[in-house]
From TrEMBL, chains A, B, C:
Cross-referenced HAMAP family: Thz_kinase
Top enzyme category: transferase
Domain of life assignment: Bacteria
SUPFAM superfamilies linked: Ribokinase-like
Known catalytic reactions: 5-(2-hydroxyethyl)-4-methylthiazole + ATP = 4-methyl-5-(2-phosphooxyethyl)-thiazole + ADP + H(+)
Protein name: Hydroxyethylthiazole kinase
Keyword Chaperone assigned: no
Name of the coding gene: thiM
Required cofactor(s): Mg(2+)
Upper taxonomic lineage: Bacteria, Bacillati, Bacillota, Clostridia, Eubacteriales
Pfam families found in the cross-reference section: HK
GO molecular function: hydroxyethylthiazole kinase activity
Amino acid sequence: MIKEAASVITKVRNKVPLVQAITNYVTVNDCANILLAFGASPAMVEAYDEAYDFAAISSAIYINLGTLTKEQEEAAVLASISAKVNKVPVVLDPVACSAIPRKNLVIKRMLELGRIDVIKGNGGEIKFLAGQASKTRGVDSVDDGEGLEKACVDLAQKYNCVVAATGKEDIITDGERVAIIQNGVEMLTKITGAGCMLGALCSAAVGAEKDSFIAVVNAVLSINLAGEAAFKEVQLPGSFRTKLIDNVYLLSEERYAKEGKVIWK
Amino acid sequence: MIKEAASVITKVRNKVPLVQAITNYVTVNDCANILLAFGASPAMVEAYDEAYDFAAISSAIYINLGTLTKEQEEAAVLASISAKVNKVPVVLDPVACSAIPRKNLVIKRMLELGRIDVIKGNGGEIKFLAGQASKTRGVDSVDDGEGLEKACVDLAQKYNCVVAATGKEDIITDGERVAIIQNGVEMLTKITGAGCMLGALCSAAVGAEKDSFIAVVNAVLSINLAGEAAFKEVQLPGSFRTKLIDNVYLLSEERYAKEGKVIWK
Amino acid sequence: MIKEAASVITKVRNKVPLVQAITNYVTVNDCANILLAFGASPAMVEAYDEAYDFAAISSAIYINLGTLTKEQEEAAVLASISAKVNKVPVVLDPVACSAIPRKNLVIKRMLELGRIDVIKGNGGEIKFLAGQASKTRGVDSVDDGEGLEKACVDLAQKYNCVVAATGKEDIITDGERVAIIQNGVEMLTKITGAGCMLGALCSAAVGAEKDSFIAVVNAVLSINLAGEAAFKEVQLPGSFRTKLIDNVYLLSEERYAKEGKVIWK
């Protein structure tokens, strides 16, 4: 299994998937840079007049609800509809869905009219979407993670998608298979956008690998292994952020197999 | 007084204030990263449908008029109204108010309907708001600073708020107390966003310290001391920007007392 | 000729041109920082209510069609109209014009109602605008460059402007003079925004140098020479991006003459 997951990085680099991103303005630059470092081709096409048509030619679509303007909201729904028509996978990052009710109206519309293949969120967001009680504060989860694995499986089955919940351990499931990932460093929570960047990597991965579960395992490992390597070099957030991109660029199939700590269920 | 100001960093790290920011797209990533490095929890909630409700659960609100879209304009006014209702302090950065008349309509509306606790601007902006003649060019002040202290005191008394004017020396006042800060390096003017980042730090500080004057003194010292430390390490703007975040992360109560150059009046 | 081109950096640093930018949200921070490092004064004034008036006081205007919101679209057209009235040079980056039809409606309106002095694009975009068949993928050119010089000259003559097409070699022309630039490193394509940053530098250069052809030669040399110097220091994209800004700050007249590889036709 780890070999399959590791091979996704090579598939990404060979295919150079075109990732359309509709994402927040806080970390949009980081998302574009990490996609390039990973081997994908980012295209932040989020204007209302452009989103539907561009989705048709994309390898995958990343929709992040962070700073969702009204125009982005409409573009996100249009892109997910186009994705359904044109059979393009969609990754959703439901930022702050448990704290801000409006986010859920957008998710509902995407589910009803369009397509969602992967939901990547923090523990609090995933539990909330699965209908469980959860604890969040602003855009961050302060949930203890109890019952999170069940929430992930429930949510994956409910919407027939892959779910990834980040936290001290990261959980990935397609409703049947479950992978628990024990890599990563706390410094990833001291910079803005680690979650957004992970969502972007998920999109690149599902744009190059048909098994979305395996693709997302690769993406989660990628940011965690790059984070570990960056933290070995520097222990301060400004410099760490720079080194994180460097180390995504340096990822190799071998490193996943050698350093990945995955529990497969 | 310096001990009180220094202690704010510890209060921020203990409370982890939730800062809602409605800020420009140029430096929004820098603002989020510096807030995290400082110990606060940033949430860039600026959508029209989200701003009012989110303000109610925030510790402080940062409103920066830089690239103010129509949607942000409405969100800013709504957030400041919510801040008044819910007793949440608001920090305003009136970017380019002397060069662009529209900014003042927004400020007027915020003052009439909402709440402003701290105004942080460059010398030209503060003098303009105080009704004095001033010199600005684009978004930068080219004012010589003559009469600036009086302008700060006048403005603070006029709106019953704390005023901070940045320049070679920084001036902070609540209309009675005045602090002149002589720290900082010129390299802070060679990167975009030092002013925006300072505004963000002001928000975090007033979100953790009730005495807004003391809070803002801490914020101004924080960016200046971090800037001095960064400049010791590197003298080029790209690298300096990275090290600035690193050095905000490294700030300690001791450094304020040891290195802060404050004239209290 | 190289001496004339080299001298533009000094003109920029002496004049500190005020550059109004209406640019995409992905790389807006990079554009502001590179303008500061180059010696210009960036002002990202892109709000509908601000764009027309601010254009009148700017030294040059940079319009980049990357993530063009509806509000930015209107602001871009207004700014180009104001530029015509107020005799301010306009640099256009027609991002993805060959992939996204809507971009061309905006360009058409700018040409009809306003003013465009420089068009800076990748090979695919320039060939498309010149009416030639071209190959692009998403926002990137995958064109082989055959016939590109003719496309540049045709386009320059068609709209009476300076055209710059980037690629392995960069081509600059005003319809009569042609310069081929052979500097640069591939790493510039592994970070987001090298093209946007070049567009920003073109604006600063035409804001300080009346001969737009010479100004654009300087801008293209500037990013390429800075890229070469940065790549000598680091070979990874995150760190390279930081060093790129550092090395723009370090540019000197001497380096252009010494290291610039320009074929003048």
